[in-house]
Amino acid sequence: MLRAWKIFKKTVIFLFFFQFVYIIALRWIDPPITITQLVSFVSGDGLKRDYVSLEDISVNARLAVIASEDQIFPDHNGFDFKSIKKARAYNEKKPNRIRGASTISQQVAKNVFLWQGRSWFRKGLEVYFTFMIELIWNKKRILEVYLNVSEMGKGVFGIEAAAKQNFNKSAKKLTRMEAAMIAASLPNPKKYTVKPLSRYVSIRSRWVLRQMYSIGSDPDVVKLVAGY
Fold it and tell me: How many domains in the chain?
């Protein structure tokens, strides 16, 4: 029993230091693969991805995902507590229609380090990894990784692969409308498709466009998406 406990303790210590070093390494290098990408490949959905630097991603795409997914991304420390409170109240009233309140930082933590799911254990790990990337990375790196690892279609991961799949161009050349359409699909990219254009994306992309114009002059947003 004592030997088993020592082995367990050493394993826990090793895993802790391994994940810590991995988080630091990903501050500069791209994730070799994520659990979601691996599941997509094994399940037959395929795996299309092409990591690119933030400089090779259209300003329109950077702005679109912030406008669509997390408008206070430049200002929070990883968590939007106001939205979490609203989502909790909504979910209590309508338990069959779950509403999320994940920030871009939380989505990166989930997509890079964890698996899809809603268990409290996974959510606890998500909180930990969100805190760590906010501490060790910076907002530009978090946004860059988000735009590279997020699922943006069936078996399509990242803005570069999505741009090629849907518009036959690189992410650097995406227009405002094209970027808004991709961002509009993010809640469920397998269901809400850009090509063929789903009704949901058609409607929501117009809302995303309005939000892009609304937050586009915010100094913190400008500094983050324009790179200065």
Answer: 1
Residue that is written with structure tokens 């693969």 in the block: 33
Q: Confidence band (pLDDT; 50, 70, 90) for 101?
A: low
Is 88 a member of any domain?
yes
Structural domain harbouring 85: 34-43+50-226
Tell me the C-alpha distance between 153 and 200, whole Å: 14
Return d(Cα 43, Cα 54) in angstroms, integer. Answer: 30
Q: How far apart are CA 48 and CA 32, in angstroms?
A: 13
**Count of other CB atoms within 10 angstroms of residue 207:** 13
pTM of the model: 0.88
Whole-number pLDDT of residue 102:
87
Distance CA 158, CA 141 (A): 14
Q: Per-residue confidence at 2, pLDDT binned at 50, 70, 90?
A: low
Instruction: Give yes or no for residue 45 having a pLDDT over 50.
Output: yes
Least Cα distance to 58 among 138, 199, 167 occurs for 167
Residue 87 has pLDDT above 50, yes or no: no
What is the CATH number for 160?
1.10.3810.10
Residues in the chain: 228
Q: Which of 161, 131, 138 is nearest to 149 (CA)?
A: 161
